[in-house]
Write a structure and sequence with these properties.
about 675 residues; mainly beta; 18-stranded parallel beta sheet; 13-stranded parallel beta sheet; 50 strands; about 10% helix; globular
């Protein structure tokens, strides 16, 4: 017997003595986690795995800014089984995000994976958010007129600021790149107007700021572009970056006013086939930040790309935008590929609120968005959408409240702490019916859809009925007993401190955006569930439902800088060092919006997970003793994304033995195979 045969025989005997469950694919084999494409306020976490065929693995998260002594809990990562849809596929993984982080800050992140079938382990990594875009003080300003623009563009180089004086400029292309340290800048002054397309195709590290344009900005094949404080009025698109033309990566589009060609809020203008046109911001690519813009009068106000134009649509933030008169979708987050975050946007007078048609595995996060007078559906989760997460959103509309009229299953969705109000005024709009006041109409919800702790109401109908998956209900008790909404709330009149305009007569004409903060006596107060890194610092016995915790300031929607900073509005401005959406001390951000010492919070137990089922250390993993003093693992540079893994549990040992056996057999076959 050869030594190789002896090894195979020994391993076979060893494996024969093991329980069959140790060899099952239900155990997890963890890969190496990463944090791709950090944005200014968020970090993505992706942890690829093999196995866990029963998808019962759970990853808890905790994090701290480098230099802080205590950890905060993050939301558990979402379990994303491998899948495919619409010609795209995604891998087997856990994925999720950290929200509302400080710009330009390194974070130490600790992950703990628990799989009862084996393979439990822990990992850590360090990742750094992008800083807010800024310019050095020593750039060279070069005055430009319409007559000298062509020569100025030709001669420009990194570190130049082309200052456009008053006058009318034809469209132009930027022929040169900047650098990360010395961007190339195009800056407007009052009276400077660009009447044609501004094309940045193929460029990097270019800023365009404080400029009025009467045509679109094109970003094909770009990266690290900054568009800020622009006023764009267009008869087609506002900002465009197609996937087949190279998309745009790690770009920042913030504090702009973008107005499109669609100006009529009528039935004939609604929907994909309506009399509407133009995309406000339509971009493919990863790492992009679209924040605090005011966008109005387009088919879709903010949009990713669909079909073969979709490219790397992951790790994207759309935060604090004020969107209105979006005649198909206010936010068309179609064909997104994980860790896309739609946070604190206000949507008014639009056909659809948020579209995930489809989401390709997810997670697609929709958090604390406010939708008023969205006609058809607040969440259009069609074409087999997988992995949609909706937390703390407020929706007020006519017709059905939570209306998802998909004909294909909506799977692995996760809804918590949302507020949905429908009621009278439903009918047929844009060729589509929006129901007659059901509180839920989501027959396509798959068994894996997980909705709970949401509030529902139907104003003026004197009914509480609907359908979630295969279950129909006609009372709150039946909703709780027959569906996953075991902790649902029934809502009615008097929810808001200021009563919003009635929609009982239908969606027309346009209404002003109302203030939908809760009344002190609201039935939505203290009815939610704690969600780490989403509703930290809530007041009372439990978080409130909807986008606003009672007593919070109204967030700033749209461009910053028009008013003085307001502490507690969730927007970091001026000399604020933090703004967590409240004016309470003791939660890490003081009542005057100054950073406090981090409260000592270990990783939270995810909702629905029995703490007793987790192994020792699962909720509070510690750094290896070999970690460097700066907190990064041995061999990593400060600020790098660096990872470590540490195995736990007997399942890993069994899988290691299986791997040895497979390797031995493969080498044995290889030795016998003839060379070719």
């Amino acid at each position: 017997m050869t030594p190789r045969d002896a090894l195979v025989t020994s391993l076979s005997v060893l494996l024969g003595s093991m329980p069959l469950t140790a060899l099952a694919q239900d155990a997890t084999i963890a890969g190496e986690p990463s944090s791709p494409h950090p944005t200014i306020e968020s970090l993505s976490i992706v942890w690829p795995i093999e196995g866990d065929d029963d998808a019962d693995g759970v990853v808890t998260v905790r994090y701290r800014a480098r230099g802080e002594s205590s950890y905060r809990a993050g939301l558990p990562l979402r379990r994303v089984p491998a899948g495919s849809n619409e010609g795209f596929s995604w891998r087997n993984q856990h994925a999720g995000s950290l929200f509302d982080l400080r710009p330009g800050t390194s974070y130490e992140i600790e992950l703990s994976l628990d799989d009862p079938d084996g393979g439990s382990t822990s990992a850590s990594l360090t990742a750094t958010t992008r800083p807010e875009p800024s310019l050095p003080d020593d750039l060279r300003e070069r005055p430009v007129t319409p007559a000298t623009l062509a020569a100025a563009l030709r001669d420009a180089s990194a570190g130049d600021v082309l200052v456009l004086g008053a006058g009318s400029y034809d469209g132009f292309a930027a022929p040169h790149d900047g650098t990360a340290e010395r961007p190339l800048v195009v800056r407007g002054t009052p009276g400077a107007i660009v009447t044609g397309e501004l094309r940045l195709d193929g460029r990097s590290h270019v800023f365009v700021e404080d400029l009025e344009l009467h045509a679109r900005v094109v970003l094909h094949g770009t990266h690290d572009i900054v568009l800020r404080r622009l006023v764009i009025t267009t008869e087609n698109d506002g900002v465009l970056a197609l996937g087949r033309r190279g998309a745009t990566y790690d770009s920042t589009i913030c504090d702009n006013v973008i107005t499109g060609p669609s100006r009529s809020f009528t039935d004939a203008a609604l929907g994909a086939d309506g009399a509407n046109e133009g995309e406000g911001v339509e971009i493919a690519g990863a790492g992009n930040v679209v924040c605090r813009n005011r966008v109005r009068g387009f088919r879709d106000c903010l949009s990713t790309l669909e079909g073969d134009e979709a490219l790397d649509q992951q790790s994207i933030d759309m935060i604090g935008n004020d969107l209105s008169l979006c005649l198909d979708d206010a936010i068309e987050a179609d064909f997104t590929m994980g860790n896309v975050r739609l946070i604190r946007n206000r949507i008014t007078n639009s056909f659809v609120g948020i579209s995930g048609q489809p989401t390709l595995g997810g997670p697609l996060y929709a958090i604390r968005n406010v939708m008023f007078n969205v006609i058809y559906s607040p969440f259009k989760l069609h074409r087999g959408s997988v992995g949609d997460v909706a937390l703390h959103n407020t929706v007020v509309k006519c017709g059905d409240a939570l209306a998802v009229y998909a004909t294909t299953p909506v799977s692995r969705s996760y809804f918590r702490n949302n507020l949905f109000l429908g009621g009278l005024g439903g009918g047929t709009y844009g060729g589509y019916e929006n129901g007659d006041g059901a509180v839920i109409m989501m027959a396509s919800a798959a068994d894996s859809a997980d909705l709970d702790y949401d509030g529902f109401g139907s104003l003026g109908t004197s009914s509480f009925r609907g359908r979630l998956g295969g279950a129909r209900f006609s009372s709150l008790a039946e909703l709780r007993s027959r569906t996953s909404e075991a902790h649902a709330s029934e809502l009615g009149e008097g929810l808001f401190a200021a009563a919003p305009p009635s929609l009982a007569g239908g969606p027309f004409p346009e209404r002003d955006a109302p203030d939908l903060r809760l009344a002190a006596s609201s039935a939505a107060i203290d009815r939610g569930v704690a969600l780490a890194n989403v509703n930290d610092g809530y007041v009372g016995d439990a978080p409130d439902l909807g986008a606003y915790e009672h007593g919070s300031a109204l967030p700033l929607y749209g461009p910053r800088g028009a008013t003085a900073p307001v502490c507690g509005d969730g927007v970091r401005e001026g000399d604020e060092t933090c703004d967590d959406g409240n004016v309470r001390d003791g939660d890490g951000c003081s009542s005057s919006c100054r950073l406090e010492a981090t409260p000592p919070i270990d990783a939270a137990i995810p909702e629905g997970v029995d703490a007793g089922s987790l192994p020792d250390g699962a909720l509070s993993p510690r750094l290896d003793a070999s970690a460097r003093p700066d907190g990064s693992p041995e061999g990593a540079s400060a600020g790098d994304c660096a990872c470590r893994l540490g195995a736990r549990g007997s399942g890993s040992s069994a899988l290691f033995v299986v791997g040895l056996l497979g390797l031995a057999l493969a080498r044995r076959r290889s030795a016998r195979a003839p060379r070719r």
